[in-house]
# Entry
Amino acid sequence: MNERRVYMDYNATTPLHPEVKKTLIEAFEMYGNASSMHTAGREAAALVEDAREKVAAFIGADAEEIIFTGGGSESNNTVLNMIDCGSAACRCVSRDKRGLVTTAVEHPSVLNAAEHLERKGLPVAFVPVDGTGKIDMDAFRTALSGGTALVSIMMGNNEIGTIQDIRTLARLAREAGALVHTDAVQAVGKVPVNVRDLGIDFLSFSGHKLYGPKGVGVLYVRKGAPFCTFIHGGHQEHGRRAGTYNTTGIIGLGKAVEMAGHEMRDEVARLWGLRERLRRGIEELVPDIHVNGHPVDTLPGTLNVSFRGAEGEAILLYLDMAGIQVSTGSACASGSLEPSHVLLATGVGPELAHGSVRFSLGRESTGEDVDYVLDKLPGIIGKIRSMSTVYAGRR
Amino acid sequence: MTGNWLYTETVKDHFTNPRNILEDEESYREDGKGMVGNIKCGDQMMMAIKVKDGRIEDCKWKTYGCASAIASTSMLSEVVRGMKLEEAYHVTPADITKKLGGLPEHKIHCSVLGDKALRAAIDDYYKRTGQESRIEEEKAETVCQCMNVTDKDIERAVREGARTYLDLQNKTKIGTVCGQCKDATLKLLDEYLHLYGD
# Structure
């Protein structure tokens, strides 16, 4: 293996923040069940509630509006599941209003849940995006109707980084009488997020995307918003989400948002600087590329580039051999047969979608990392293109 | 702790140092050339051969494809050198996969383009040399590349009682690897049910 290792896949997951790691190690001593009445239980419960307050403060919510879940996918599924409740006893959503409006570029945990609802006969609209990944506002307005129960739109795109104007979208949705959910898994911890300012009812995020542990997530539910339990069982989270509290995970997540609160502002500027340095370098050194996403409204550390004539899995594996770890929108790397649905939705076409690479930077990324990538990448692309059927004579 | 590489050492070797890339397409005087695949699906393969005394004297290729496609075609290009045309015509993806020490199951469909391109190149050679009669018409059309299931196999399965996609899968293993052929299979299933259904 190569001696130098450059991790540029922070959108997939992040390493633990050293402070979070310390906190977690201490938290492993805390074995009590946070639902127990005795001392061990009360100690654990106090730490869970402390974490809840930190999380609430971080996104501008009240502690009672925070539900801990098993991760972003669970949070998303919980919200989407509500519109299919259909129980007369449950006052979650009206039974004659069961429409969902979402977008073509959502994470699979929203997209596949939405398709599942559609197969069950619920009206679902997938709003298209423009070439930069921004929602087509006209199509969004058209999709909204009196039958729309829920609007679910991701805040920052995991693949191309495009940030949506959730505040405006939420206002339009509210005017149409719909509830508003945002999948903010990629946004929270990377850019400032305030639920009151956004005017939303539900928000999902995940611990491991912001230097916290895996297997723990958050669902914000606005006070007074209808809600319907997804995981039934014990009385945890006031009956809104059953299952023994993941004490360690929750405490670690609390520490992670606390650290993000200290570091995020500087990190936004620093990561955008590194990202732009990488983008300019690639544009300068590698011909015939396409930078995907929005030029400005983008998660600070995310850069998605398509290399014409080069297949993404091959790029990924050659980069990996050079110690550089990234991800790709190529079908060959995903285990599915289609290339990235996000890139196809932006209209780049299959060749560029198959040839896309996502570089996502984070708190341990440095200028030297960027330079190292810029040193290795041009040769790798050149090598792949030299054997490409679709790059003859274009070298 | 580096973790195992995704593929075998042989695959890695052929991926890192692919053999017989057609570097100068302009000046290469091939006797036959074939191109298969589609960029939409993420892989395309071109193969060019030189023939001498009924044997493949040289075999060069290019691809738009992933690591499996690159490695398997690199291997194929070595294997068929010096081989009689008739023999090269019948090299299968399974032969190549075996030589590579195996591929992950979901990657097998990425390795089937090489031998198709080779057959297309040999056919092209036969055409150029007035030996069209040697072109072997595929008797049956392969629907499922991964498990090598043909339209004839589907037809037989329906005649023997298969009525659903699941029945077909149980009988023929069709679509049990990558699933890419499901739509084509469902269409054929409809056709044959119309002919042989209850």
About this structure: Chain B has a mean pLDDT of 88. The interface with chain A takes residues 2, 6, 15-16, 18, 21, 23, 25, 35, 39-46, 62-70, 106-107, 110, 178-180 of chain B (CB under 8 Å). The beta strands of chain B are 32-38, 43-52, 55-64, 142-144, 149-150.
